[in-house]
Amino acid sequence: MAGFAIQPDVLMPGSWTVQSDHPGALAAVCDAVVQTLALDSEALGLWALHYDEQDLHAEHAYARERSELGLHAQSQVVVLPTPYRGHTIYLDRLQLVAVAAPPAAGSRIAGLYVGSQGRDPRSGGDLLLTVHHPSVSHQVGAALARIPQGGSALKDGHELVADSRFVLHYDRQDDTVVRVRAPQAMALPVQESLMRLATLVSTW
Length: 204
What we know:
The chain is of the alpha+beta class. It has helices spanning 23-36, 63-69, 105-110, 137-146, 158-163, 184-201; strands at residues 4-8, 15-20, 43-50, 74-79, 94-101, 125-132, 166-170, 177-181.
C-alpha cells in the first residue's frame, strides 16, 4: 500500500505539501487536479532543470520532455553563459522553459523527475509546472523565462500562482515531496482534487 499525505501550509493558504513514497502517486498529482477540475482545455507551462542533460548540446537536450510537450508547445532550451573557469563544472547551464503545452503532458513529464535522484548527485532534476488559462500564457511564459536568469524566488512566489489555476513544484533535494499552490479562487477545488487522489492511492 502506497503512503500518501497532504499537509496544508497554515501560514500560506492555498499551499500544500504532498508526500508519498510512491513516485507514481506524486507524478499523478498534476493529472488528478486537471481531470477532476476539467482543465483539459487550459495550457501547461513548465521550467525544468535536469542535471543529466548538462553534457548535451542544447539542440539535443530535454528530448523526452519536448516530445511529451508536443509539436504545438512553445519550448526552448535556455543556454546560460558559462565563462571559462578552471576546475569548474556548470550543472545548470541548460534549462528548459515551455508554454502552450497540453495539461495532459504534466504528469508524464513529472514522471521523468519524481523519484529519479538515485545515488548519483548529478542525477534527478527540479521541475515547475503551471496550469493556466491560454490568455495568460504570455505572462506565465515571461515569468518562467526569468527563472534561469536568477529568478529562483519565482518558483515559490505569488506571480505565477496568481496567473495559474495551480502550480506544482518538485525539488530533487526532497524526492518524496511535491508542493502544490493555487490562487484563492481555486484553493478549495484543488484541495478536493488532492483528497480524491489520496483516497485512490490508499487502495494501491
